[in-house]
Amino acid sequence: MTTRQKRPFVPITEIEHAAFCKPEDELPSKSLAEEIAINVRWQKIPTEYLHYSAEQLDAKIAEARRKLGARVTILGHHYQREEIIKYADFQGDSFLLSQEAASRPDAEFIVFCGVHFMAETASILSGQHQKVILPNITAGCSMADMAPMEDVEDAWDDLIEVLDGYGGVTPVTYMNSIAGIKALCGKNGGAVCTSSNATRVLEWAFEQNDRVLFLPDQHLGRNTALKLGISLDQMVVWNPFKSLGGNTEDQLRSAKMILWQGHCSVHTRFTVKQIESARERIPGVKVLVHPECPMETVDAADINGSTETIRALINDSPSGSAWAVGTEISLVNRLALNNPDKTVVCLDPVSCPCSTMYRIHPAYLLWVLEGLVEGEVINEISVTDEVRSDSMVALERMLALK
Ligand code: 13P
Ligand code: SF4
User: Fewest CB within 10 A of the end CB: N or C in the chain?
Assistant: First the structure.
């Protein structure tokens, strides 16, 4: 066995999340110099970028884009702050952004305003002639960081050994994971999923095998498996800090769903109590949460879905409707802003943006765009050829499913 008991480790991205919780009126962007005062990791940037005002940034970004023309395309995830999303040529959830990255072969550069795993996926799906750029290299994802490659490889080796002769296991990884894990899935008959197609991908996975290893979000895995009729007693959690993930060989052999012990620090803040309070305060409110929320929260909500589902449901709902939303605050605030005839509130009374998404400040966007104007590619995201071709297999399995 390769897994063994070890000291639990908390990713730095997880520790840093709380530093970004702030009162609602402090959410709008300040100069980078003021934001950088928050004591977390920020990528070093030339000092002139620290002091630009919002107006200066706007004018300079427009000028750089004019010079670059069609050579550059900007993609933005729904969780990006307002001051960034306004520059996006396309905005979407992880799934739509991955499709978009694959369908813009004419752009020489894809500037990805999102987090590292999304830019990495874009670099795998875009053409070899294209370069993908992440404006701030510290924009990671705490959930992805909860599944380091070495721990996943150890777990995989053990599972192969324990389940040999017992039907094996199909690996499925959530998009929110490093490319090496996508490659492991590609090499071993598995696939990638996003929150918008997790049900379909899991159905597919159970057509391949009676047992699935789901990484790295235990909540999305559990919530989706429950939808497919798999009961809690058919699921085990793999704790990477314990030998055999904290399970016996028998438990692993009788499990249908092995859930990696990872979570999203933003979505685990949403609780049943907050839902009860919203229902008390807002008559007729509909509660809509992301499936990264814990099972109890998803059960208590009216609907759950990906960021794109959340956006579309609220935008398309009748005037006068009321929504309490359990997802990242930048998206909730945008939906409230764009739907003034509806009530749209965040379930959580404290505003805690995803701290890594939030690190894409307009000054970083300007820095990488001006770099391109000068012929310098800053923060290119790429993977090795081997990882690219293996992870492509897992991504294509997902993209082929309807
Ligand atoms: P979506 O796929 O719903 O955009 O979610 C991505 C994400 O990181 C949610 O935390
Ligand atoms: Fe990762 Fe959660 Fe941020 Fe999404 S919201 S990027 S899962 S930390």
Answer: C
| Closest-approaching ligand to the CA atom of 310 | 1
CATH label, 25-141+356-383, candidates 3.40.50.10800, 3.30.1490.190, 2.60.120.470, 3.10.180.10? 3.40.50.10800
Share of the chain above pLDDT 90, in %: 93
pTM confidence score: 0.97
Give the tens place of pLDDT for each residue, 77-88: 999 999 999 999
Residues 209 and 168: beta-carbon distance below 8 Å = yes
| pLDDT tens digit sequence for 353-389 | 999 999 999 999 999 999 999 999 999 999 999 999 9
Q: Which atom of ligand 1 is nearest to the CA of 78?
A: 4
